[in-house]
Fold each of these.
Amino acid sequence: MSEQKYVKILLFRYSVVVKGIERNLCDLGYSVEIITENFNSIPDISSSTNLFIVYLPGDIMDDRLKMKELESVCNTIKSLEQKMLLIGEAKYHFELSQAVPAIDEYGWLDRPVESETLALAVEGAIKGNVMHGAKKRILIVDDDPSYAGMVREWIKDHYKVDIVTAGLQAISFLMKNKVDLVLLDYEMPGVDGPKVLKMLRQEASTKDLCIVFLTGVGTKEEVARVMEMKPDGYVLKSTTRDNLLAYISKKLG
């Protein structure tokens, strides 16, 4: 390592595991400091830090105060245009990113972390390779959070992914955010897929948006009914991960 790199590990509570991470990074030549709960210092130390690593306790979702702290930490680091890597439980990644959207803009490592994986992730994060900003953005609109979460897991390594679970939420989201493609559930309670499509086509800012229906029925009649609305395409919910990725890649060029 030709130039000294400085890493700050942010802890919500002390962890023996993090001492091991600290040793691994020191062995790789990084200068490492562990900061526990004193997150107000982040702006002061930002200029002398190459990477913040946020180590999340397994039960953070159950602690409202710590969740507020996490949101504040992520938003502060984002506002400082700093680099960050999060380490946490794989099963909570989706829920955490829904509660704190800024999480989705940074790299994530599932626990437990292998030394080699950690080394590559830290190096990539410092170089800016794990930021999702350059990725194309997809909005999934589906009233079934389990299905939406599964699709997100399939495509999140290739695209920045957002999820909403209702038609009106989709409209509100798209009035404030730009995306490259919308995967829109055809059948939803209340404002369903066709109504959302119609509303988006009537707005100047979203009329040319690429909108693909998600449908659970693949009969000839059903497909014809779906395509009558003139979406940019449709995907059967029974499709595989590989087929979905290939389809999206083709749509986004």
Note: The longest helix spans residues 64-79.
Amino acid sequence: MAVAAGFLVVSGVMLLWSPSLCAGVPQGLADHSVVIPADGLAADARYDFWLQANQTFQIIDRTADFSAMVEPPTFSTEAYAYNNPNCDLGRKISYKQEFAFASPDHIFWRRDIERDELDGRKYTFTTPPDDGLEDRVVEFCLVVSGPGTHADGDDPNIVFRRRLQDQEFFTASEHTLTLVIHAGARPQLTGILSGAFGGVALSLLSNV
């Protein structure tokens, strides 16, 4: 449902399609990806991604010392629940339970360790194939925290070290990306998008 470097963002009541490359915006070879750039995040943001069978979503951390944090810390096996239109950070869902038809051998998240120094640290989520999907859409949330864009003489890496040392001392120089994943078979995704956004969504899907 997406072309490499393109993405669907749901913001308020607007559905946007953008192939642009900038801080915190998807890019790369995965079907969808989000980048935490070396100079930090300029602002908080939310992105919604729509993944079909076998599609991939990637988090790329290019900060110094790979200081971005993905939450929940157990994101390789579970994520925060999604209660339309918001994320429920007090409740978690298990990928294996939500994708109950997926093969027991399916690996939801992988980390590309070998290319860390070249491309940044990459975490890649893969949706199960068609025969591993039910007739519904699985929706979940992740929160990625990264240093704020360098400003007022503050080194974002110092701020992060400060945060790890004393949570109460940490204040402002951090931003978060809220990532909402909607994963399922194309007919189910089409139904959700067309119901919410009508002709605009159908037009976008027809170009994928």
Note: The first strand starts at residue 7 and ends at 11.
Amino acid sequence: MANNTEEAKTGASFSSIDYVQLVIYPVILLFGSIGNILVMLVIWNKKRHRKINDYFILNLAIGDFWMVTISTSVDFFLKFREFPFGDLLCKGVWPLMTMCLFASVFTLTCMAIERWHTIVKPLAPRLTVIKVLWVLLFTWIAGLGCVSPLTVVAHQRGRSCTETWPSFAMRQAYTVTVVSLQYALPLFIITIAYARISIFLKRRTRLKISDSSKRSAAVLRRQANNAKINKNLRTIVTLFAIFMLPKQVLWLWLDFGKGGDFEHFGDALIFSEFMLYIHSSTNPVVYGTILQEYRSGICHYLRRIFPFLRSSCTNSIQVHPELKLESNNNSNSMTLTNRKLFHQPESVKEIA
């Protein structure tokens, strides 16, 4: 995250990475906010037709929206002016942003478990709407609990937010804990859940084919649907693992290695944040390519906002009936947070 600056920057003082941020951040803000708002509108207008999966996606879109808008807006502002409210930036804004990302992480993990339970155990009792709402409330409460230590140890010092721990060992312990909760453990659970779904679908497809003397259209549709689900699951896990890995590695390198001594460590942090923001912004795109109902709903609003997209958007939602994927059999994209999104160590104060 970009540092607090003691005075506004001038054009001459901007570095190349600053110019990159000034170009990319508005694009990410526009794309991510509009995309997540469209997803929320689609779900909101489903009303009585909402499924359990829709509540998870709605919670994820809310977390992504606030994370993208707060992060990029504050970063952009700090390129020109110092944050005017002192410690509120370090004790309030950055922890709030990280809490949103924690909520997204926990939501994605719960989504994976729910998808596994629904697909692999179709006869087991399903989650009710009330239970899902309690689960989603827990994701935010747990996120608040994870960032609560930061509201105590974070302080504004000169140009940055720093963490003042009673001992360096406590800081290392917190780093390991957060990396585990934000990346390692969720990735493990999500990978196992989706792998079991994939194995189950492959086995079920083989049984359907072997038990049927007629390769009916229903069997072919099931094969196509299962293949699409498997492809989507691979995409979800891959995006999660790749886009979130750099941030986790950098924080571990900083606290357990000599990352702070690396000349371009600050630039590496900024790059990892680009990855994080882009990942949150691309979730609507993933929804639109995975679920037909989301693709149709998003295109409906895009056609109303941008009439010139009418023909191209209409063409994009034409799907062969045999390849139409039911939303009940799908998973959804994910986004994941960094360890301490706002933290800027003493050794990298001059990032911005």
Note: The two ends are 9 Å apart (CA to CA).
Amino acid sequence: SLTDMLDGKIARKYNLVTNFGKFMDPLADKLLVCSALICLIELEQLPAWVVIIIISREFIISGFRLVASDNGVVIAASYWGKFKTVFQMAAVILLILDMEPLELLSQIVLGIAVILTVVSLVDYIAKNHKVLTEGSI
């Protein structure tokens, strides 16, 4: 996540922001988080329903972006989506550490991540619903 943030700053500073980067950057984050979450289910560190919510949101947003892309529109990551990713990654790290003193913190961070997952989904749809209804933003 730190390298992701650094990459974004460099791209903006040197005017290297591309539509490809706007699409691939969030996709790479999704693959990383979803892979870790699925492993955590197998390790019995995480209930499956949490992962279903998170992965469902990712499929919905990816589909939404695909429709937008077909209409010539690139939907960049939102601030809610970025906050969601930070909390998801923090939750994954805390759950992987599996340390007793961090158990409550892990659950709180995970809860915030799930809430932000839903909030960011609603935010994307609210801000970009015209892509589905009118073909443009």
Note: Residues 78 and 124 are 7 Å apart (CA to CA).
